[in-house]
Amino acid sequence: MKKAVLAVCALSLFMVQTAFATPDTKSVNCNQGKKIQDAVDGAKNGNDTTIDISGICTENVVIRNFAGSSLILTSSTGATINDASGGAQPIILVINSRVVTISKLILNSQSGIQLSSCTGCNVLGNTITISRNGVATNDASGLIFDNTIHLNVPLGGGSGVVVASFSNMVLSHNTISGAGSPAVPGFGLLVSQSSRAQINPATGASEITAVQTAIQVEAGSSVQLSGPLNVHNNINGVVSNRATANIQGATISNNTTGLRIFYGSTLALFDSVVNNNTGDGVQVSDNSSMTLGGTSIQSNGQRGITAGSLVSVSAGGPPNTVTGNTSGIDIACDSTSRVTGTSFFQVVLPVFACVNTAPGASPLP
Predict the structure, then answer these.
(1) How far apart are CA 39 and CA 73, in angstroms?
(2) pLDDT by residue (tens digit) across 320-339?
(3) pTM value?
């Protein structure tokens, strides 16, 4: 609920910022030889400018140093923009700007939209087919909502969404998919370089499927997820490397590994389902910690939870169900790790292969 309010607030802020501006609507019909860039260059800082695009366009658009009330690139007819740079540039680059919205466009390129040093910038309701990055943010803030992003086989690996370089983005109701089976190399969502991504339900579930790693959070970054989110048919569901992942209301199933948490990472997993992955449900290692409550970890191909190398796993309420994993061991840990809160498991107790367990909360020995 809290995250849904955040999404509404982001849109409300956009409306307030533009409420007192002079409206200016420009029409660009690419089938008549018009150029989007010309309309962008003609946008005045004092105006609330909307550029309504139609037809099939072939160009790369740069929005640079826009400091006006607002600028919206949209289409009332579902315009298509194809790359004209041979993959050298994103279709739309927004740099050193504020309150820019890209919406209701069909984009086909190696790279779709890049937001760099962009405050209050939004990507809403687009269909993006790419082979590198669908939406990439660097030092940006705003909302990524209701987009469909399809990754063709990436050139050296790509991502549906990249949140990087101190960005702070809210994501909701997006569908990110690879080209099919086997999963294509790359990430559904990559959060890196001290950035933050908040994934909230707003009007419906988000989905990430058929990529190498659905969500990768790394390098001092964090992801805050309040479901529903469906992560399925990937090689890795969620990977956290020196980072923080707070997950609630996710379904992580039919991947190779459900979650991998390592190198000093922190995972909070609540009210989620981690079932039917072909390997482990959750792997926690290398001085990392995991807290879970109200979560089902069942019917995975190997263990439910594997903890090793100075790991702390702490269970709390509501009760958790960790049972029926194919290896016959539901929770395994080495002698340097500990599982606490074992009383917070359902009546069907998990099969432990751990020396250090305790029914209540207690620190590592």
Answers:
(1) 10
(2) 999 999 999 999 999 999 99
(3) 0.92
